[in-house]
Amino acid sequence: MKKTIMLLAFLMIFSLFVPVNASNTNVKIQLNGEVLSLDVAPVMENNRILVPTRGIFEKLGATVTWSGKTSTVSIENNSMIIEITIGKNYAKIYRKHDLTGTPEMVKLDIPAKIVKGRTIVPLRFIAETLNAKVDWHSDHLTVTILTPDFKPQPALMLDKPIGYTVVEMDSINSNKELMNWINEHSHTEGIHSIKLNSTRYILVAAGMKPSGGYSVSVDGVYDLGEKKIFVEAILTTPKPDEMVITALTFPTQLIRIDGDYEVTNLDVKILERK
């Protein structure tokens, strides 16, 4: 089981997200800068991505309804109704300004399906029909969706990776100043940073967890310019049937980064997605 956590800081933005399995790839869906946690993983088929309806399109301001009698999902906003039937290679679009009531028939590259009891539909077709901008970033296996009224922030730009090194705790036992700092911050959920002897250390802390089986790992560090950085990390949680110790744990990972980045932790906000 995976959880999504996003940490926003004044000069550093840290995102704990859940990579989802789609045709043996880890595909992420990012809506207006927020990495979404979906109850059914996106599916990639014939280079098209299908997603569950409610987890995304309600965030685009649409209302989603399901007809079990006709196996049809309806996605409605102020100007239109999109109807997609399971297994059909076309969609119907009813424009509310069209008084004839005759739908526009649009051919789909791939039909909607049922996966794990949930309806999944073509992402790009519906999002773009709802006037959102959709882009595929193959380098990061990420679909970004931007609504017309959203102004992209620098944190969305992940095209400038910078070097970092994972620091094993055993290798710094003799560094009392660093160890004291880690002990002081390791129980506090968030992102923590310190500069010692020209080296910048970053501690990713998941906070208190009720058992073993949790782990944190940094997945990438990116230069946003003006000494701002973006840190991507993964929080892995135990599976429901996994045997773990029953004890409080505090998962962390320590890294050091290359370059002179002034990192502060002002106005840290944590958003958790279950």
Strands, helices and their partners?
Layout (H helix, E strand, L loop, with lengths): L3 E5 L3 E6 L2 E3 L2 E7 L2 E2 L7 E3 L2 E5 L1 H4 L5 E5 L4 E5 L3 E6 L4 E6 L8 E4 L5 E3 L2 E5 H7 L3 E5 L4 E5 L17 E3 L9 H10 L4 E7 L2 E7 L9 E11 L2 E9 L15 E6 L11 E5 L1
Parallel strand pairs: 2-21, 4-16
Antiparallel strand pairs: 1-2, 1-23, 3-4, 4-5, 6-7, 7-14, 8-9, 9-10, 10-11, 11-12, 13-14, 15-16, 17-22, 18-19, 19-22, 20-21
Report on this model:
- β6 and β7 form a beta hairpin.
- This protein has 274 residues and is mostly beta strands.
- The radius of gyration is 22 Å and the shape is elongated.
- It folds into two domains: 121 residues, 2-Layer Sandwich (Copper Amine Oxidase, Chain A, domain 1); 110 residues, no CATH class.
- The longest helix has 10 residues.
- The termini are close together.
